[in-house]
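Sharing a chain and its predicted structure for anyone who wants a worked example. Both blocks are below, sequence first, tokens second.
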Amino acid sequence: MLRKIHTGGLLAGVMGLVLAMTASMPAAAQRHRRLHQITHNKLTHRLPRKAAFRRADVAITYTGEAAKLAAPPGSRFWLNGGSVDGAVTFYGDLGLAANLSAVHSQDISDGVGLGKTSFVIGPRYTKDTSKWTSKWRLMKKAQSSALFGEALFGVAHGFDGQFPSGSSLVASATSPAIQLGVGADVTLWKSFGVRVFELDYIHTGLPNNSSNSQNDLRVSFGVSYRLKPR
């Protein structure tokens, strides 16, 4: 009789313990989920978000382009104008750049003028050189700087000139364009700075009754704006 009572009491105790553990499981799981969520939120808040780009640059410049007449051979002239340049660096030091420019001359030969616009786009390599310019302290602040090289491809449009077309002359023409160049930017105040120089080789294929090919040298300088993610 005592054995039965003892065994029954033991079974009742075991069943009670099992029921208590079963009842506490949802609460424990809920606490675990809450703790996991809090930890995840803290880690997410502490980890820096990866920016979509490393830097972006915009420049507005004066542009002078040295060109040469097809005839007489060797006669040179200058086209003057401006350009708008933008670039985004998003993979290491590599990025994508685009340039829109317009230059013009009222008289390149015998009262004949020439204008040219171009739009080109392509890869740009930008190297931060702030370690060399940070000691300048031009405006009571360390100056950041960068050098870049690029290879851009697009289209050029000549206008206000005389372009051979069959047996006649037309006032405008269009051709592919290539722009290969290097340049330097220096930041002076906050994100504003100067494009110290940009030197470009420009190749176009506008008709000229000779080689139908132009190889010009372009020089640009102006103001710049740099944007870097925080």
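Comments welcome. The domain at 55-227 is CATH 2.40.160.20 (Porin).
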